[in-house]
Amino acid sequence: MIKHDGHIHSPYCPHGTADTFADYCEQAISDGLSGITFTEHAPLPEGFTDPTPEQDSAMSYGQLTSYIEDLQAVKSFYKNKLSVLIGLEVDFIEGFEKETTTFLNEVGPKLDDSILSCHFININNEYYCIDYSPDVFLTCQTLLGSTDAVYKHYYETVKKSVKSDLGSYKPTRIGHITLCQKFKKKYPATELHSQDIISILQLINDHNYSLDYNGAGTLKPLCGVTYPPGDIASLAHQLGIPLIYGSDAHQVKGMAAGVDTLFDTDILSAPVLR
Q1: 3-state secondary structure of 54
Q2: Confidence class of residue 274 from pLDDT cuts 50, 70 and 90?
Q3: Is the N or C terminus of the chain more exposed, i.e. has fewer CB atoms within 10 Å?
């Protein structure tokens, strides 16, 4: 029932595979999709140092022009077979709102559709990539005192991303709001954090944004559920928030992640374009 995959990475991802744009497009056609959005990790803001060991969280700024030009060609080639949208997954990084706005003002006119996600949290003026590894998550847990405190901190960062003023080209789809649960089987929380989740959904609804309903968590051995899980997606639907399916595929074989576990694929929308 899924007709559009709104969250796909590309050969420009330094922590993905060399699968080509054509590989993804052909798989999408084979799967019966009518469209896909390529949402490569946008270059990180000027002045921000990637805290991951290989500093491979995102494409470099120097690759951006080639990325867009390549996708323009792909879009043209597949125009009669598949709707290909040019997008980015933009990181909200607390403290770098001005730099992110400047970047979006530059690149925004060239994009069809994008996602605003949180991967990095700030603890005591140091940044940590929350989903990088169980060890990094444990470091955050040690610094904040508990898994529940890490979740709370992450959800507060997501709220800030929704409320942030990033200019007229700010992405209006909020990415994987429960990414902090990636290692939940190893580091389980003791609370449901229902009020935090409800607050995020209310903010998304108030801003007329949409929600990334991300299947990648189903492939993660320490997670096993979508981001967000089905009960939260159902609540978002009840509030009238558009749910946009995204595989978050970093390789072709990751496409269609979690589709079989989506609570109701009939309600999933195509991307809401600016």
Answers
A1: coil
A2: low
A3: N
